[in-house]
Specification:
By secondary structure, the protein is an alpha/beta fold. It is built from nine helices and six strands. The chain is globular. The protein starts with about 25 loop residues before the first helix and ends with a helix.
């Protein structure tokens, strides 16, 4: 198409595939000090404005028997830790984990959430690492409406729900739909997510 004089060098610039975690995967609950009866909603990634992390935390406070756990790093960490202090046992911030371990941590989540707005072409069309790490862990996802790349992966298998990224009420409703499903439905969805990640 571009009639280049020389063939370009193409460099693979992505992490290794998120392998399906094996063995002990209850890492989030233990690190956050949460009881077995608490449903765990996890945010994975950078703590930056405009990615829906604060709204996600607010949303989880509206869901019974659930806690919000943010795993990562970034400029909003101070605000997140202040919320931890104000909402003990419901809002927990944990440090980032090695990239090779993220899927194993995601496996301890009952759901993950990333509600970035579709504000750029990159956000709209990308399939971020946290998508594949969540799926490898078997966690369903609440994601921002308009993220076409994410929707193309999740919608055919019913593995996520799209919501307005700045609406904690809508995020909470989507989380209730995922978390309140019958156990057999949740187990089947987890198996589909892991199969999709492997394939």
């Amino acid at each position: 198409r571009w009639r280049l004089a020389e063939r370009p060098l193409v460099v693979f610039n992505a992490p290794s595939r998120a392998e399906l975690p094996q063995g002990d995967t209850d890492l989030v609950r233990r690190a956050a000090g949460l009881p077995a009866t608490t449903r765990v909603v996890v945010f994975l990634g950078r703590f930056v404005p405009g990615r829906g992390i604060l709204e996600a935390g607010d949303a989880v406070m509206r869901v019974a028997d659930a806690a919000f756990v943010a795993i990562g790093y970034g400029p909003l960490e101070g605000e997140l830790r202040a919320r931890d202090a104000a909402r003990p046992g419901r809002h927990v911030t944990l440090p980032a984990v090695p990239p090779t371990e993220v899927a194993r941590w995601a496996a301890g989540a009952d759901a993950t959430v990333f509600t970035s707005p579709d504000s750029t072409l990159n956000l709209r069309l990308s399939t971020p690492n946290k998508l594949w790490e969540s799926l490898a862990g078997g966690a369903p996802i609440v994601y921002g409406a308009g993220l076409a790349g994410v929707e193309a992966v999740l919608a055919p298998e019913g593995l996520g729900i799209a919501v307005a990224p700045d609406d904690p009420g809508a995020i909470a409703a989507a989380l209730r739909t995922l978390l309140d499903a019958p156990p057999a439905e949740r187990a089947a969805r987890r198996a589909r997510a892991r199969t999709l990640a492997a394939e």
